[in-house]
Automatic annotation (TrEMBL), chain A:
Residues 4-235 form the ABC transporter domain. The gene is ugpC. Pfam families: ABC_tran, OB_MalK. Gene3D superfamilies: 2.40.50.100, Nucleic acid-binding proteins, P-loop containing nucleotide triphosphate hydrolases. The lineage of its organism: Bacteria, Pseudomonadati, Pseudomonadota, Alphaproteobacteria, Rhodobacterales. InterPro entries: AAA+_ATPase, ABC_transporter-like_ATP-bd, ABC_transporter-like_CS, ABC_transpr_MalK-like, ABC_transpr_MalK/UgpC-like, Mo/tungstate-bd_C_term_dom, NA-bd_OB-fold, OB_MalK-like. SMART domains: AAA. Belongs to the ABC transporter superfamily. PROSITE patterns: ABC_TRANSPORTER_1 (PS00211), ABC_TRANSPORTER_2 (PS50893). NCBIfam families: PRK11650.1 (NF008653). It comes from Paragemmobacter ruber. It comes from the Bacteria. Keywords: ATP-binding, Cell inner membrane, Cell membrane, Membrane, Nucleotide-binding, Transport. This is Sn-glycerol-3-phosphate ABC transporter ATP-binding protein UgpC.
UniProtKB/TrEMBL annotation, chain B:
It is a multi-pass membrane protein. The chain crosses the membrane at residues 6-29, 50-72, 110-130, 142-162, 199-221, 251-270, 303-322. Residues 106-321 form the ABC transmembrane type-1 domain. It comes from the Bacteria. It comes from Paragemmobacter ruber. Its main location: membrane. This is ABC transporter permease subunit. Pfam families: BPD_transp_1. Keywords: Cell membrane, Membrane, Transmembrane, Transmembrane helix, Transport. It is found in: Cell membrane. Belongs to the binding-protein-dependent transport system permease family.
């Protein structure tokens, strides 16, 4: 049981503020994922919660108790490191038991906790091995086991899967999801730069960029209703297309004349005063439809990537505009070097002015 | 000035000679097996097979001349009489095991062997751990490392002054006696008290070797992955537990290498004893005893026999040490 609260938290190294105005309410049982590009401070924020980095401003509390100056071991948290951070000179059993031994728990209690964690993580046959005799996935499970035995209020994961190969990453991701199912009352915070991990694991995602929070929300909320261009392009792959244009009709449905000559209709409502506003029209590659009529975009396909279930179309750049990418269902390898016209359903078309979504005004 | 030019000339000739050797021998090899013509691939293979030996040759010759040859000559001398004229069989070795001074040297060497590596490594480890945490740590490190740069003889002279004795009433120029007097004690001739004096001599070597241990162990401590330390902090380990349960076990291999390296140095200890007591008052050690018999006793037989004993003592540790160091490097 643990509610975490961050109020105006900031981190500064001397004059340089790397994180500022972090406000976040995390409820018991949530699995929060921090995502963001490298250098956005997501790991730093996690380490501040762990107590490995000092919080230079604001307040952080767990269950109403201010944690800023509480030593890491007394915060009731456990952390799984990217590099596993197993103690190389200790067996799997000793690695998992270390925290309990330090806490002077009885041998029987330690044994029971270790055996239980080993069973959950299928590590029982490996308890007497040294970490160097384990595979990457097994090591990661030991690291998770080391957290479980402490029965913490909050679990912290710092990019736990990034050292694993692709297949193992998927398997371990599912294991973590199952683990969360078994412990519905524990709070977890998970840092990753992999948006698939974020989308599949999170109850809520925190997108960090430029030292602050860009948006907090459920995975599909971020996908369907991104607050700004950064989130729109960060979530989803390939990234959302942004086509510049000008509003020519307002109301419940907004009409935009695009700089490329096309017309876009969006169900994002606008007011009369928005007439003539410069906007970026955002369309996800998978929301584009091929159309025989007049559309939003017409161009020559430069490269196709047929993946079987979908085909990615990369269009020739037009002037300085960013490359347009469309993802059509089925196999369309024959469209290479053809001219294709695209449109999208109005409710799938996003509008951004000055980088911010018009939906959230 | 003359010495300076002499040294400079030596350096120039030495370095130039090396360069010339490698350049010329390489050139010759390429002439003998040119990388062209009908046998090009065979020539290249042959040249490549010979080249490593070409580069090793000077080192091998020097090793043979100054290590291998003396070794066999010492073995030969150790079964000959004082002048190296007459074969005496195992006489020198029989004499050795019955000689009280040799027994004393062995006893002292064993004492040195236990005390010096243990304390040097321990102090080095503590110094490495502490200096990494404080702001003026680098300055402290430089100070602790400094004795490494002093020759054993120089260090001994310094410490001879520390232990110096002046009769009561006179000004004590020795630091130790000055302190004793300051606390109201009577000055002592420290270096003449058997057993105590051996430990006082060991202090000198500990003082020198601590810097060595510190530098190596400090590098090893820095090589410990930071995450394991952070994980232990999160697990609730205190600084002491962190050090003894997480850090020290991870550098155990390095600690052993440092320990054995100092052990080898200790087995060869000679200069300190020669300079400070010359083996009097029960401080004799094998190295100095060998020198004593060779130079003062004019007995190359007995001196060589002692030398062989020292070698036999060093050899196993040396082999173990090299193996361990190789494993560490992998």
């Amino acid at each position: 049981m643990a509610d975490l609260k961050l109020v105006n938290v900031e981190k500064a190294y001397g004059e340089v503020r790397v994180l500022r105005d972090i406000n976040l309410d995390i409820k018991t049982g949530e699995l929060i994922v921090f995502v963001g590009p490298s250098g956005c401070g997501k790991s730093t924020l996690l380490r501040m919660i762990a107590g490995l980095e000092r919080i230079t401003g604001g307040d952080f509390s767990i269950d109403g108790v201010r944690m800023n100056d509480i030593p890491p071991a007394q915060r009731g948290i456990a952390m799984v490191f990217q590099s596993y951070a197993l103690y190389p000179h200790m067996t799997v059993r000793d690695n998992m038991a270390f925290a309990l031994k330090i806490a002077k728990k009885s041998a029987a209690e330690i044994n029971a906790a270790v055996e239980k964690a080993a069973k959950i993580l299928q590590l029982t046959p490996y308890l007497d091995r040294l970490p160097k005799a384990l595979s990457g996935g097994q090591r990661q499970r030991v690291a998770i086991g080391r957290s479980i035995v402490r029965d913490p209020k909050v679990y912290l994961f710092d990019e736990p899967l990034s050292n694993l190969d692709a297949a193992l990453r998927v398997a371990t991701r599912i294991e973590i999801a199952q683990l969360k199912e078994q412990m519905p009352n524990s709070t977890m915070i998970y840092v990753t730069h992999d948006q698939v991990e974020a989308m599949t694991l999170a109850s809520r995602i925190v997108v960090l960029a430029g030292g602050g929070i860009s948006q907090v929300g459920a995975p599909l909320e971020l996908y369907e209703r991104p607050r700004n261009e950064f989130v729109a392009q960060f979530i989803g792959s390939p990234a959302m297309n942004l086509l510049p244009g000008q509003v020519i009709a307002t109301g419940a449905q907004t009409v935009v004349r695009l700089d490329n000559g096309g017309i876009a209709r969006s169900s994002v409502p606008t007011e009369a005063s928005d007439m003539g506003l410069r906007v970026n029209v955002g369309v996800r590659p998978e929301d584009f439809l091929e159309t025989p009529e007049e559309g939003m975009f017409t161009g020559e396909v430069e490269i196709t990537e047929a993946l079987g279930e979908v085909t990615l179309l990369y269009f020739k750049r037009q002037g300085d505009a960013a490359q347009v990418v469309a993802k059509l269902p089925g196999i369309h390898a024959d469209l290479r070097h053809k001219t294709v016209t695209l449109s999208a359903a109005a409710h799938k078309v996003h509008l951004f002015a000055n980088g911010e979504s018009l939906l959230y005004r | 000035m003359e010495q300076f030019f002499g040294a400079a000339t030596t350096i120039v000739i030495g370095v130039g000679g090396c360069l010339l050797y490698f350049f010329a021998s390489n050139l010759l090899l390429d002439r003998l097996f040119p990388a062209s013509g009908p046998n090009i691939s065979r020539n290249i293979n042959r040249a490549n097979a010979i080249r490593p030996w070409l580069f090793l040759l000077p080192a091998l010759i020097l090793l043979a001349l100054y290590l291998v040859y003396p070794l066999f000559w010492s073995i030969y001398l150790s079964v000959m009489d004082a002048g190296g004229q007459r074969f005496v069989g195992a006489d020198n070795y029989v004499w050795m095991v019955n000689d009280p001074k040799f027994i004393e040297s062995m006893r002292n060497n064993i004492l040195w062997l236990i005390v010096v590596p243990a304390f040097s490594t321990f102090f080095g480890l503590v110094a490495a751990a502490v200096t990494d945490r404080i702001r003026w740590g680098n300055f402290a490190k430089a100070m602790i490392f400094m004795p490494m740069a002093i020759s054993f003889v120089g260090a001994s002279v310094i410490w001879k002054f520390v232990y110096d004795f002046r009769p009561e009433g006179q000004n004590q120029i020795g630091l130790l006696n000055a302190i004793v007097e300051a606390f109201g004690g009577a000055p002592e001739t420290w270096l003449t008290h058997e057993i105590v004096n051996s430990f006082l001599l060991m202090v000198v070597l500990i003082w020198i070797q601590t810097g060595f241990a510190m530098v190596i162990l400090s590098a090893a401590l820095r090589g410990i992955p930071e995450e394991t330390v952070e994980a232990a902090i999160l697990d609730g380990a205190s600084p002491l537990q962190l050090f003894f349960k997480i850090k020290v076990p991870q550098i155990w291999g390095t600690i052993l290498v440092v320990w054995t390296t100092i052990t080898i140095t200790v087995l060869k200890v000679f200069d300190i004893v020669l300079t400070m007591t010359n083996g009097q008052w029960g401080t004799q050690v094998l190295g100095n005893y060998m020198y004593d018999w060779l130079v003062r006793g004019q007995d190359s037989g007995r001196a060589s026999a002692i030398a062989i004993v020292i070698m036999l003592l060093v050899l196993p540790i040396m082999i173990w040490n090299i193996r361990n160091a190789r494993r560490e490097m992998r």
